[in-house]
Design goal:
With about 625 residues, this protein is α/β, with parallel strands linked by helices. The protein folds into four domains: about 20-225, P-loop containing nucleotide triphosphate hydrolases (Rossmann fold); about 235-320, Elongation Factor Tu (Ef-tu), domain 3 (Beta Barrel); about 325-430, Beta Barrel (Elongation Factor Tu (Ef-tu), domain 3); about 445-625, Rossmann fold. It has 15 helices and 28 strands. Strands 7, 8, 9, 11, 12, 13, 15 and 16 form an eight-stranded antiparallel sheet that branches. α9 (about 470-480) crosses α15 and α11 runs parallel beside α12 (about 540-550).
Length: about 625
């Protein structure tokens, strides 16, 4: 049995054997993907007798083909899949013929599970895209084609299934084939092979069908056995992301990982990225001991001739053909979350074996799945694809995805829920203007702070509208001023009259609002001030972003906890009344959620305490922290 990604070939006497082919079946729901693979396994006599008997029983219980065997049930193993008649998870199957071995991923067609389809596509060399001959190209068919292209698959089989249900009509087949090739003209596929099939009855699956005498091309299996997918990882530049720093004992320090492209030999020069340090390979340790050289797919441990600082997530690369190193790049994103993309929000990026903070700084366009038109957009929703600019917290090493699928792919993770929200492919690095540099300054941050006779800090007051944030913050500032502490007050309403007057109250605008305030607050702490920020700031992700920007030692989150009913009763500006009447949209506490701080430094409960008492608690905390 082969594992996904294996390149081992089966040897058969007198037969030329091609490398293993990894392919997936995809397309819209109920187009026959599972039935196709089940039929293919049946025709290759790869179903054991006990499995065949169980399949017969299951077909009577769950099947959709009358008295016939329902081959889809071989792949749809989950009870929910059988009950609904759809594929939910990715099912892998492994089989071989005399000419080739195969790893096939049967992926779901339902729009809700498109992210699972993308998972299968990320490890495949070829896509079998099924189309129901009765329905033609659907939006989900086009979406899967776009995702397949985005994830680097360059060979597609357009399997026009259920051709029997249109009486094997040649015109229907050719119309669908022409329409798809026209749609896919700009998707970058090297080959598109259209085949009329009936997965249920076996037409053109393993052998040519007499029912389609007008079709002169290969049967599906023949094409899969002979297609050349051009796996050129051997000739690509050497790349090995470091997965683990191995300190077996005090005398040994090795760096473990899997070579994703190129080759390496003992004594070769290598570069360590993103640092750019150069060294030589002292030894290469494989699963069976020391080896002289290694190539793509080999899991090895490298030892180096020099004491070089190397960490998990760094990349070993060919010295004369290195990947790009940078902290800004353009990339395509496939959005996989019900929560929309918010430019300016901080996410976690996992690229190779490295995880770091990243922000979508600009969404260039969203792709219309039906027409491939590039549409202006401020956000992406579930299953949408767009081109964006990203910025990372520090430099990473990468190749454009078109050049190396392993070093040019990444995922984005929501920092609060830990959900994978997007899959991305890097297009190119963004070069900063060459005339912009960090300007050295004569007076340091510590020197400015020393003049103040107190430490800088950010007091971040957060809570529902009408909770009393600004009232408490004003009292705190007045007390600090009396103690000759240098302060500045940033209030949500005030900054919207100037710095942020161009922003509204959509989720994306609120993210940008807090991002700008965080940058301003950081500049003011650099000047040595105590900065009091009074903002609803409803999202944990943005408060976390500001905390990281300022630094945990100087960021004090103050949660002003006032029950919603009390805020509505106060309603000092009449905003709740208007929001409840539908006159104000995206109002926190009414039609926009407020995410309660999980671990604030100060939790002020306003129920039985007046504002002066709560302000005193803040002052006492600042004294305890030796800020004042």
């Amino acid at each position: 049995m082969l594992a996904p990604g294996t390149s081992t070939s089966l040897q058969s006497a007198g037969t030329a054997v091609r490398p293993a082919l990894r392919f997936l079946t995809c397309g819209s729901v109920d187009d026959g993907k599972s039935t196709l693979i089940g039929r293919l396994l049946h025709e290759q006599n790869l179903i054991f007798d006990d499995h065949r008997a169980a399949l017969g029983r299951d077909s009577k219980r769950h099947g959709t083909t009358g008295d016939d065997i329902d081959y889809a049930l071989l792949l749809d193993g989950l009870e929910a899949e059988r009950e609904q008649g759809i594929t939910i998870d990715v099912a892998y199957r492994y089989f071989s013929t005399e000419r080739r071995s195969f790893v096939v991923a049967d992926t779901p067609g339902h729009e809700q599970y498109t992210r699972n389809m993308a998972t299968g596509a990320s490890n495949s060399d070829l896509a079998v895209l099924l189309v129901d001959a009765r329905k033609g190209l659907l939006s989900q068919t086009r979406r899967h084609a776009v995702i397949v292209s985005l994830l680097g698959i360059r060979h597609v089989v357009l399997a026009v299934n259920k051709i029997d249900l249109v009486d094997y009509d040649q015109t229907v087949f050719e119309t669908i084939s022409v329409n798809f090739k026209y749609f896919a003209a700009d998707l970058g596929f090297k080959t598109i092979t259209a085949i009329p099939i009936s997965a249920r009855h076996g037409d053109n699956i393993s052998t040519p069908s007499e029912n389609t005498p007008w079709y002169t091309g290969p049967a599906l299996l023949e094409h899969l056995e002979t297609v050349d997918v051009d796996d050129d990882r051997d000739t690509m530049p050497f790349r090995m992301p470091v997965q683990w720093v191995n300190r077996a004992n005090s005398d040994f320090r090795g760096f473990a990982g899997t070579i994703v492209s190129g080759g390496i030999a003992r004594g070769d020069d290598v570069a360590v990225l993103p640092s750019g340090r150069l060294t030589k390979v002292a030894s290469i340790l494989g699963s069976g001991g020391e080896v002289d050289s290694a190539g793509p797919g080999d899991a090895v441990t490298l030892t180096l001739a020099d004491e070089v600082d190397v960490s998990r997530g760094d990349v070993f690369a060919a010295v004369r053909d290195r990947p790009v190193t940078g902290d800004q790049f353009a990339a395509h994103l496939f959005w996989m979350s019900n929560e929309r993309l918010l430019p300016g929000r901080s996410y976690l990026m996992k690229i190779g074996h490295r995880t770091l903070a990243a922000t979508v700084t600009e969404l260039k366009h969203r792709l219309d799945i039906d027409t491939l038109a590039k549409l202006a957009a401020k956000t992406l929703g579930l299953n949408e694809v767009g081109l964006c600019n990203l910025s990372t917290a520090s430099a990473v090493a990468f190749d454009p995805y078109a050049e190396n699928r392993d070093t040019g792919a990444f995922i984005l993770i929501d920092r609060t829920s830990n959900e994978t929200v997007a899959a991305g492919t890097i297009d190119f690095a963004l070069r900063r203007a060459s005339n912009i540099h960090h300007q050295s300054q004569t007076i340091s941050r510590d020197a400015r702070s020393g003049l103040m006779r107190h430490k800088p800090a950010v007091l971040w007051f957060t809570g529902l509208p009408g909770s009393g944030k600004s009232t408490i913050a004003n009292l705190v500032e007045a007390e600090l001023h009396g103690r000759r502490v240098h302060t500045i007050m940033l209030d949500g309403d005030n900054v919207r009259h100037g710095l942020n007057r161009d922003l509204g109250f959509t989720e994306s605008d609120r993210v940008e609002n807090i991002r700008r305030i965080g940058e301003v607050a950081k500049l003011m702490t650099d000047a040595g001030l105590v900065v009091l920020c009074s903002f609803i700031s409803p999202f944990q992700a943005e408060r976390h972003m500001v905390r990281e920007l300022i630094g945990a030692d100087e960021f004090i989150e103050v949660f002003v906890d006032t029950p919603l009913e009390q805020c509505i009763a106060r309603d000092p500006k009449g905003l709740y009344r208007r929001a409840l009447a539908g006159e104000i949209k995206n109002f926190t506490g009414v039609d926009q959620a407020y995410e309660v701080p999980e671990h604030p430094e100060l939790h002020l409960q306003t129920g039985s305490n007046d504002a002066e008492t709560l302000a005193s608690k803040v002052i006492d905390d600042l004294v305890r922290r030796k800020i004042v």
